[in-house]
Amino acid sequence: MFTRRRVLVAVGLAVPPALVLSASAWYREKHRPSLPAHTLGDLTGKVVVATGGSSGIGKASVQKLRDLGATVINGSRKDGSLDLADLNSVKEFTSKIVEGGRCDLVLACAAEIYTDQSQLSVQGHDATFATNHLGLQALLSGLTDELKPKRIVIVGSKLARQGLIDPPLIRSSNGKALNSRPPPFSPVKHYADTKLCNHLLSRSLSLRSPSSKVLTVSPGMVDTDLWRNFSSLYQLVTFPIRYVALRTPEDASLGVVYALAAEEIEDVPSGSFMVDGKVEEWTEKEKDEEIGEQLYGVCKEIINDAKNK
C-alpha cells in the first residue's frame, strides 16, 4: 500500500508538468513560421546597418544576410560599438556610418526589458524606453536624413497592442514616464509600451522618408535572452516552457530576413506591419498618425536636449 501511495503521489506530481509541456509542444508546432513562396535577393555589395546583431534574433538574421552576400555593420553594446541607451554613443555610431557614405538596408533588432522601474539611461531617461525607442529614433532619423536606406526593418511585437503612451507626459517627465498606468509596475507591459512607440515610429518614418521602405516585423514569441534581467528563479521556472513552446531565434529570423531581402517586398507598401511574410492590419492605436507625430516630435526634443547638454 505504501509503495502504491508513493507511486500515485509521484504520478500526481508528474502529470501537470507533462500536460504543460505537451501543450507547449503543441503550441510551438501550431505557430511555426510559414512564409509565402519567395525569392531572396542577392545582397552582394549591399551594406546593412544592424542593431542587436550579437545575440538572439538579430544574430540569426545577420548570419542569413551575410550568407546572401551583404556586408553587415553591427552596432552592439556587447562588442562596444553601440549603446542605444546612450545618445552620445548613438551619435558617434551614426556619424561613422554617415562618414562611410553607404547604408542600403537597416535592421533594428536590439531590445531590452529592465525589471527595475528606477533604472535610468546615461542621460537620465527610462532605460527600457531609451534602449528600445529613443536611441532607435535618433539612429534612424540620422540615417534616413543622410543616407536614405532602401529598406528599414524594425523588429516589433504584437505586445504593442497592450501598450499605452502619453506624449505630453513623456515630454514633461523627460522620458522617465511613458503613461499613467497605475501600479504595480509590470516590466512586460512597460516593454509593450516601448514597442507601441516603435510601431508609431515606423509609421511616422514611412511618411517622413518616402525614399525608404519602412516595415515592422513581429517575429512571434521567441526564446531569447531578452529575459536575462528577470530573477534567476523566474528564468529557471519558465525555462522548460520557453524552450519547448517558443520559436528559436533561427525560426524568428525567417520573417525578418524576408522583409529585408525578399524580392516580393517590392509590392508591400511602406509603413506595413508583417507577420511571417504576410501583411497584417494595424490596430487603431498603432496607426494613430496624430499620436505618432506627437511622439516623434517629443522624442526629437528630448534627443536635442541631450545633445545640447
From TrEMBL:
Pfam family, one: Epimerase
InterPro entries: Epimerase_deHydtase (IPR001509), NAD(P)-bd_dom_sf (IPR036291), SDR_fam (IPR002347)
GO molecular function terms attached to this record: oxidoreductase activity
Gene3D superfamilies: NAD(P)-binding Rossmann-like Domain (3.40.50.720)
Record-annotated NAD-dependent epimerase/dehydratase domain positions: 50-204
SUPFAM superfamilies membership: NAD(P)-binding Rossmann-fold domains
Keywords: Oxidoreductase
Xref: PANTHER family: PHOSPHATIDYLINOSITOL-GLYCAN BIOSYNTHESIS CLASS F PROTEIN, PHOSPHATIDYLINOSITOL-GLYCAN BIOSYNTHESIS CLASS F PROTEIN-RELATED
Protein name, entry field: NAD-dependent epimerase/dehydratase domain-containing protein
Biological classification of the source: Eukaryota, Sar, Stramenopiles, Ochrophyta, Bolidophyceae
